[in-house]
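ok so for the tutorial part 2 we go from a plain amino acid sequence to predicted structure tokens. step 1 is just haveing the sequence, like this:
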Amino acid sequence: MKKLPVKKYLQTMRYAATNYLAKECIYPFYASFKVTHICSLKCSFCNVWREKTPDLSKEDVFKVIDNIANSSIIVLSLEGGDPLVRKDLGEILQYAHQKPFYLFFTTNGHLLDKRPMKEYGKHIDYLHISIDEGHDNLAFYDRLEEFQSYGPEICIQIVVTRDTLPVLEEKVKQVYEVNARTVVMPACHLDGTDDFYPDPKQFQAEILRLKQKYPNTITTPKGFLDNINKHHGCSASSVIIDSDGGLFYPCRTVGKHLYNFTEGSFLQFLRTPEAKQARTAMDQCNRSCGWYQYFATDVFASPRSLYSSISPYILK
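step 2 — the prediction. this is what the tokens look like for a chain of 316 residues:
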């Protein structure tokens, strides 16, 4: 993982202090950018592939990346759809790698054999590969050591439904046996999809059990498990950017496109009355959808929760 400029860490601390004093998350620290909606799969628990939002040109993608680099964001995850469908992905990764944030990359893996992953890997800090029943790629568990040869840290992303929770252990065991890492998340109920969301208490109990049985393997923080069992546990500490540059705010579940990253300053938008009103609406939301990105990122402000997530990398 690359080192960021000291200036970036200091800026992040100032934004965190501002959030603390304001008693709200004005400034987010994590962003996922869906560089495309195109995907080779049609997962039953996902609604991204159903949308027809256009993709930005490479030049406009660069504008979005520049805007993110000049904001409070310290972690950017490039996602989709499947970002591997973009033929200009190599140039996008090279451009993003030069910016002062950590770069995550998430794929369903079905195009890994058709792309120069070792070259791509030079520009990625963490490579997340979704492997589960929903992504129809369980055979990939036999290739985990091969995936580790790509270069960046590998983290297997496992989406769990109420039906697949009982067979989660076998997947975690295979990740453990090759000294890799996994982030386990529930299949949250999205608009236009069937409800596969597992019982949050059962999910919490199983993850805690597996964390103990397979140490330094599961990065899902305990704080996330606590949050999904609360009446309200989400936070605007994380944002999702659509493939046309539009920002879902305050969140992907109930938010609207209130801003576009190709136009103007993101930091200035966050200070507008419209943004404040959206955050208030999020704080009052009782949907409790369990979306990992919104229920997990704020717990990293807690040293104990942060340790529970990064310790698998430190102690591996």
